[in-house]
Amino acid sequence: MIFFVTMEQIVAVNSDSKPVICREENIMTKIQMTTPLVEMDGDEMTRILWKMIKDELLLPYIDLNTEYYDLGLAHRNDTDDQVTIDAAEATKKYGVAVKCATITPNHARMEEYDLKKMYKSPNGTIRAILDGTVFRAPIVVKGIEPCVRNWKKPITLARHAYGDIYKNTEMYVDKPGKVELVYTSEDGEEKRALVQEFKAPGVAMGMHNMEASIESFARSCFNYALDTKQDVWFGAKDTISKTYDAKFKQVFQTVFDNEFKEKFEEAGLTYFYSLIDDIVARVMKAEGGFIWACKNYDGDVMSDMVSSAFGSLAMMTSVLVSRTDTMSMKLLTERYRDIIIVIWRAARLPQTPLQPSLHGQEHYANVGNSMEIRNLHSSQTNWKKQLFPPSNPER
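The structure assignment produced for this chain is given below.
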């Protein structure tokens, strides 16, 4: 696992899982990596930032062993986006990866880069292949106060990282006709449902989710809550979406009742479900300190709202937890939302407590033998003590 640190001090996690503090001048040899990690380069400023991080913080101390994938938009266009799929599959193979921010093209980018087509979000593609839940929480530092005055503790957004509009199929309807939702089973049984009788041009969209993925989403939320000692709030719109959203509600309740209810009671934690609009209203009145579970699109939108209200989109930690992998992301800059993603496989690795995380919560991660970690000291303590000028909520 890689930590981004100051030049003065670095942290080590030794065999008994306790940090060892030492000075930079005491380091005599580079850290040796026994397993390659997947290096996913990105676009624009993130390429510059990642090179600076490697040159100044990593290469002087680590003998990097990487499998390189260029996820820059030009190369994705050259490979018809196959490089993104290859990078995700390599991540599943090696269990460790570093990813930089990438551009999701729009019409303007298509003209600027002379693209063959409007490619989908690389993050969306990678998340769909890895499957999981994205946990995002603001980095709280002295001098940067939330715009919402009653927010005293970080609010952790748990975003389902599979399906919904990020795996949708869309269609433009150019003349009158009908759009139907058709399901054909393997044995030939067919079910049809009318979507809309179009009398004029319009648009239609089909999206899906998998029950196993929703179950994994629920378990990830409840396990993360037990690890970080936080309540779980979940909201959907089951009064309107009586099958799709209702399935999310039903799965969450079933998983909680059968697997986590007693554990939550012992830990003094609660699980609360309500309609998404009611949850939003409650969040604005709460003081924070809980996990807000959201479906994929809701989490995409609400996590940016929460991070911005806490100070900045760039001041946000992010962790993707799936059935077999854990992906940790840190935002580096705000304009391009540049991110570094560190991924390590939970299934192979011994547990090591890493606490506290940058946002002040205890987080237990699985750190393993991808590299020999020694004589590294994290800058997170110094980071939290830094004084920043008060932010302007109106900015």
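Interim note for the steering committee: Residues 244-267 form the longest helix (24 residues). Residues 1-21, 325-395 have pLDDT under 50 and may be disordered.
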